[in-house]
Write a structure and sequence with these properties.
There is one protein chain. This protein is mainly alpha-helical. It has one domain (3-264). Helices cover 81% and strands 0% of the residues. The chain contains eleven helices and no strands. It has helices at 3-16, 23-34, 41-58, 60-76, 81-110, 114-134, 145-158, 166-176, 181-210, 216-244, 247-264. Helix 2 packs parallel to helix 11. The longest helix is centred in the middle third of the chain and has 30 residues, at 81-110.
Amino acid sequence: MTTLEIIVLALIQGFTEFLPISSSAHLILPSQLLGWQDQGLAFDVAVHVGSLAAVLIYFRKDVHRILTAWFKSLGDKHQTDDSKLGWWVIIATLPALAFGLLFKDIIEVYARSTAVIATTTIVFGLLLWWADAKAKNTLPLNLLGWQKALIIGLAQAVAMIPGTSRSGITITAGLMLGLNKTNAARFSFLLSIPIILIAGGYQTLKLVTSGEIVDWNALMIGTVLSFVSAYTCIYLFLALIEKIGMLPFVIYRLLLGAILIAFML
């Protein structure tokens, strides 16, 4: 990879990881436009580390409070809002794990095409628009409950299909269940922590056993840039989401899908 490729792909990965616009759709654009090759497994690990560090540092107080309450609840059986939130994140993570174990190979072979990504980018963009338009914004996050958390988790599992957008579909599900935009995004970001950790761990294991030659300079640059762009994304998204709503992201997804379709014609 050239230095330009490293910079562009790391910034794209970090910034689109948490926006409801599909990181997978953006990562195929450089190859379509510029003929760039796949960035490789080691680089995937690096940008996952950067994204994970960003969400952990941004939500460090929340994560500490949730983990402390969750571990305490194991001993005294007393549930607080924070310990419940911890359980809901765990419950919502399970469907994606099961879906990944059952269908990962099938998705890798049959669902990583431009046609699939263009279609899911448009379809789930329209679903996000519908959910935002119909949102009731009446459900506090502390009353989400394990059943609704599981529904959001099932939505996250669908995001294994490229182009869906993990953050996009979990925010969509949260809005449809009654959360406001900020709480839907906050739960989506907290839910990203275990799934990125698991995905990064799996990729790291594959990297160790693959014998792939590692360009440590590229990995360091990729990690730092993905961290900076991911942290910036989270900060701006949470600061602006109640003001701008989801429509700008919907319009962007429709345009992106149309561009991808144009490349297939």
